[in-house]
Amino acid sequence: MISQTAEYALRAMVFLAMKDGAATGQEIAAVTLVPGGYLSKIMQQLAKAKLVHSQRGIGGGFTLARQAKEISILDIVNAVDPIKHIRSCPLDIKSHGVNLCPLHARLSTASRQVEEAFAKSTLAELITESRSPDCLSVPLTPRALDTACGDCSL
Amino acid sequence: MISQTAEYALRAMVFLAMKDGAATGQEIAAVTLVPGGYLSKIMQQLAKAKLVHSQRGIGGGFTLARQAKEISILDIVNAVDPIKHIRSCPLDIKSHGVNLCPLHARLSTASRQVEEAFAKSTLAELITESRSPDCLSVPLTPRALDTACGDCSL
DNA sequence: CAACTTCTGGACCTTTATGTCCATAATAGC
DNA sequence: GCTATTATGGACATAAAGGTCCAGAAGTTG
């Protein structure tokens, strides 16, 4: 559905949205269970896409560059793993495989629906809409690993 | 959206659905512009999934194992590149990252929508529903590469 | 300035997806 | 049985995604 990289980016952004102030790469990696070295690459991409602001030195780290309600899932996914659209039949120039058009029309429709759904969800919604109150009250630290959440079954 | 492999499998199946009798691997590869050697692997997967029947020797090749109206896009995609569902928060056992649940709920919803759309489209629909009559009348041979189809813009 | 923290960016490695090649097995026609 | 045809399956090659590591730049504190 989405790449591992996009999944990681989303986790990091959700975490940032829930956190007051800056979070260091190490902190984000620990909480979101993303490999630290790899996360740093992803954060760089998010910074280049102007979704987060980065600050070096003590007290530094990453913060959202905009309000959580102004950042959609689609923004995040596109920053690290751009959704590519089918613009013409992939069967070479003269489209001999023109007979495949109805097929690609379906695929295109499906991907546009996903895109639309992603565009409609903001970070703000994701952190507000907790279906299981216990879940959100879990402290945002690696230690919380010990805390079970029976409702987390999606 | 879907893997290259799934794209290739769909092209091959659409071609088979349009063709009377068996088509050899070479023929399918030429028309669908899929690398021959790679296509043979994919056809093997489709055969194992009982979506096509294979026959060796002269006059042999591949044929649909069921009627075109009984084969959905989802059947084909699942045969070569199974859609994996999110069943629980991917943040390890005790779901410390429980705060990500709303996120994964969205992702899960999106993938289920795609799955549903794919399940509803059959091969029969794909080959009937030609929005551009000219397209479907194009001969199903590599030579047709020379035939342009202006309506093929998806 | 010195020491410490944190991001940056490049080199490199591993795994997975994609793609190639060929010997072999099954089938049909003669 | 012989030959031509066609799928099968394994070995191998290449490309892309995912992941690791570390030197160095930029920032903070004292």
Written description of the protein model:
Two copies of one chain form a homodimer. The first copy, chain A, is mainly alpha-helical and 154 residues long. Chain A has one domain (4-135): Arc Repressor Mutant, subunit A, CATH 1.10.10.10. Helix content of chain A is 49%, strand content 5%. Chain A has seven helices and two strands; from the N terminus they run H-H-H-E-E-H-H-H-H. Chain A has helices spanning 4-18, 25-32, 36-48, 73-80, 101-120, 123-128, 133-137; strands at residues 52-55, 61-64. In chain A, strands 1-2 form a two-stranded antiparallel sheet. In chain A, a hairpin with a 5-residue loop joins strand 1 and strand 2. In chain A, helix 1 packs across helix 3. The radius of gyration of chain A is 19 Å and the shape is elongated. The two termini of chain A are 16 Å apart. Mean pLDDT of chain A is 81; it is low at 93-98 and 131-154. At the A-B interface, helix 1, helix 5, helix 6 and helix 7 of A face helix 1, helix 5, helix 6 and helix 7 of B. The structure holds a DNA duplex (30 and 30 nucleotides).
